[in-house]
Write a structure and sequence with these properties.
Radius of gyration of chain B: 19 Å
Distance between the termini of chain B: 26 Å
Largest interface: A-B, 25 and 34 residues
Order of helices and strands of chain A: HHHHHHHEEHH
Number of helices of chain B: 13
Shape of chain A: elongated
CATH superfamily of the largest domain in chain B: P-loop containing nucleotide triphosphate hydrolases
Helix content of chain B: 25-40%
Largest sheet of chain A: 2 strands, antiparallel
Structural class of chain A: mainly alpha
Shape of chain B: globular
Number of strands of chain B: 10
Order of helices and strands of chain B: HHHEEEHEEHEHHHHEHEHEEHH
Structural class of chain B: alpha/beta
CATH class of the largest domain in chain B: Alpha Beta
Number of domains of chain A: 1
Oligomer: heterodimer
Number of helices of chain A: 9
Number of strands of chain A: 2
Number of domains of chain B: 2
CATH topology of the largest domain in chain B: Rossmann fold
CATH architecture of the largest domain in chain B: 3-Layer(aba) Sandwich
Strand content of chain B: 15-25%
Bound molecules: adenosine-5'-triphosphate, magnesium ion
Strand order of the largest sheet of chain B: 6-7-8-3-9-10
Radius of gyration of chain A: 23 Å
Distance between the termini of chain A: 56 Å
Largest sheet of chain B: 6 strands, mixed
Chain lengths: 295, 315
């Protein structure tokens, strides 16, 4: 089995698995064996890519300019869609909860509902999904076409580690920008809630914002001043940022089969990272709820 | 070739030998281009033969610096190399390029010529056998060590593989920025020098993006980038495919010029037998996963082998 056939070469790993001895095993077992191994290899490659790209954040040479460019690409250019999603999510949250709360005569608690859901869940997850669609696909397409036009090979040939040059800046930029985008998303969402609360329910802004803060304070603090909700709301996008960028780079660098392969890499990136965001969101929530002392 | 002694001592500043064939020796000047190409249309085979007879062997790199003794190991060597993807691609490949030689690898499409170059660059690792650069086995190097070894080599990719997010200038400057401490002025000077070497006008192309260039220009920028670091080994993957005869001639001469003036060791993959024979010290023919012929162009034309005759006949 050749190195690049298994996708090893893209990530610059040495072959740690010897070529299978095809003479001794019956064909069926060899195939089974190869299939099992390639699944294991894929997962292993993913983690090696993740490990390397994170380690290179602290290793020379630093491609600072690439990081800044990627922060612009990932962060600044995603601002528009994040503002829109945030605003409308907050508005619809307020609208739905106003209907629900009216039956209990408790419409003044709209702020609590909106802020808790935005900060803990919807802000991070929606920002993550939006960035996965916009940025993840872009990264995969770009790296994929670099792969099929041999630009990745060229980087390697010119003595540059493609992970350091291409992956690390994207991962670092995503790790920084996704929390920032999420905070903006949360804030705009809560403002959206405010708009609906005053227009539809007639709740005064001061009342709304007091309940927003009440909710955050009620959920408790770590180190006395850092609200638990903020911990949740920042941990998640940080993890999602890494997840999206590494997944996109993984599929992008592993592209095979020409331009068609580039399309497949983009699709796989968006599907995989969206699913991973939702699944991992559950586990982070589970973990943080048990670590942080809520109520 | 090791067995062919240099015919005369190198004289600094002058070409290796007086031009026996004006077409061949004056080839670096573009003015003689149309005549040179036109003359060879009558009988290509005949032309190749006469060209070969009249020629100083290109293995004598004139004033090029010879840094190593006569017993030095080949600069590039593949020993019994085998590689398979889903199917076996290469089996028991053995070839060697001594210092200053140009080995041309020919063969039908899809036989694994590009793959062989990637093995030399250690972008791929062979399933069996060894690849040696300057006598050092590179098969078991770590990734970081491989990056170092690759700095000895310049590669011209089949599709040029220019970084399309960077301008022509940045592309050529890339290896310099990565691996040297050169100042911006020195880098700019080097980029200009290399662009002129490949017959491009620095001021016209420097700020263009790769997407704005023609195929031939991209190839030439690719060559300029490959040699920016002045590597001792150059690898070319079909440097002339898909180009018009004039540009093909220019690029062929360029490769010969590099070898003659700088003593660069080259491995060239080519479909173009005519230009292959012009620049080759040795030709390797890849056929059915193996090297079915490895020798000088003269030996190749003299061969009685049916496949070789067919291959050459298919000019
Ligand atoms: N990464 C890879 N994975 C699987 N198969 C590959 C890979 N790279 C090359 N091959 C296969 O190896 C064979 C040789 O490919 P290669 O590109 O070396 O041919 P080539 O001689 O350079 O052809 P051409 O003259 O058309 O450029 C082809 O059949 C190709 O399908
Ligand atoms: Mg090829």
């Amino acid at each position: 089995m050749a190195v690049s056939g298994t996708g090893f070469a893209p990530y610059g790993l040495d072959r740690s698995f010897p070529a299978p001895d095809r003479t001794r095993l019956p064909a069926f077992f060899t195939r089974l064996n190869d299939a099992a191994k390639s699944k294991v290899l894929t997962l292993q490659e993913y983690f090696v890519l993740a490990g390397k790209s994170l380690r290179f954040i602290f290793a020379r040479p630093f491609y600072a300019q690439d990081v800044i460019q990627q922060m612009d690409e990932i962060g600044v250019k995603s601002l528009g869609i994040v503002l829109l999603t945030g605003l409308f999510t907050g508005m619809v949250l307020a609208l739905q909860s106003s209907v629900q709360l009216k039956t209990f005569g408790a419409t003044m608690y709209i702020g609590n509902l909106v802020s808790a859901s935005m900060i803990r869940e919807l802000g991070p997850v929606l920002a993550g999904l939006m960035v996965a669609g916009r940025v993840g696909s872009g990264i995969a397409a770009q790296l994929g076409s670099m792969r099929v036009t041999e630009q990745i090979d060229a980087l390697n040939t010119l003595g540059t580690d493609p992970i350091k040059k291409l992956v690390t800046p994207r991962v670092l930029a995503a790790l920084i920008m996704l929390p920032v985008l999420t905070i903006i998303n949360d804030f705009v969402g809560i403002i959206g809630g405010n708009i609906i609360a005053s227009l539809v329910v007639g709740l005064p802004a001061s009342q709304y914002w007091r309940t927003v803060w009440d909710q955050i304070a009620n959920d408790g603090f770590v180190f006395r001043y850092v609200p638990n909700d903020f911990i949740q709301g920042i941990t998640k996008p940080f993890v999602f940022g890494g997840l999206i960028s590494i997944t996109a780079c993984y599929f992008g660098l592993g592209t095979t089969g020409g331009t068609e392969g580039v399309g497949q890499a983009t699709t796989k990136t968006v599907v995989t990272s969206s699913i991973l965001i939702l699944v991992i969101d559950y586990f982070i929530t589970q973990l943080l709820l048990s670590v942080l002392s809520y109520g | 070739m090791a067995d062919r002694p240099p015919t005369k001592p190198p004289t600094p500043g002058t070409p290796a030998a007086p031009p026996a064939d004006p077409d061949r020796r004056e080839g670096d000047r573009r003015t003689d281009l149309p005549a040179a190409e036109g003359r060879k249309t009558a009988s290509v085979r005949q032309a190749i033969r006469s060209e070969l007879e009249g020629d100083e062997p290109p293995t004598t790199p004139g004033d090029a610096p010879r840094t190593r003794g006569p017993d030095a190991p080949p600069v590039v060597q593949m020993e019994d190399v085998s590689l398979a993807f889903e199917n076996p691609i290469l089996e028991h490949i053995t070839l060697a390029a001594n210092e200053g030689e140009t080995v041309v690898l020919v063969g039908e499409s899809g036989t694994g010529k590009s793959t062989a170059l990637k093995l030399i660059l250690r972008l791929l690792v062979p399933d069996a056998g060894k690849v040696l650069i300057d006598g050092d086995d590179i098969t078991n190097l770590s990734f970081e060590e491989a990056l170092k070894v690759r700095q000895k080599m310049g590669m011209v990719f089949q599709g040029a593989a220019l970084f399309d997010s960077m301008s022509v200038f940045e592309n050529i400057a890339y290896p310099l920025r990565e691996h040297t401490q050169m100042s911006e002025d020195e880098i700019a000077g080097r980029v200009r020098e290399k662009l002129q070497f490949v017959d491009l006008e620095p001021d016209r192309v420097m700020d263009q993006m790769p997407a704005e260039l023609s195929g031939g220009m991209r190839k030439r920028v690719g060559i300029a980038r490959g040699m920016a670091n002045n590597p001792q080994i150059m690898l070319y993957d079909e440097p002339t495919s898909g180009l018009d005869p004039l540009t093909t001639g220019t690029i062929t001469r360029l490769i010969m010029k590099l070898q003659r003036e700088l003593g660069v060791t080259s491995v060239v993959v080519s479909h173009d037998i005519r230009s292959a024979f012009r620049m080759a010290s040795k030709v390797a023919l890849l056929h059915e996963r193996r090297i079915s012929f490895f020798g000088t162009p003269e030996e190749m034309t003299a061969s009685e082998d049916k496949y070789i005759q067919d291959f050459l006949g298919g000019l």
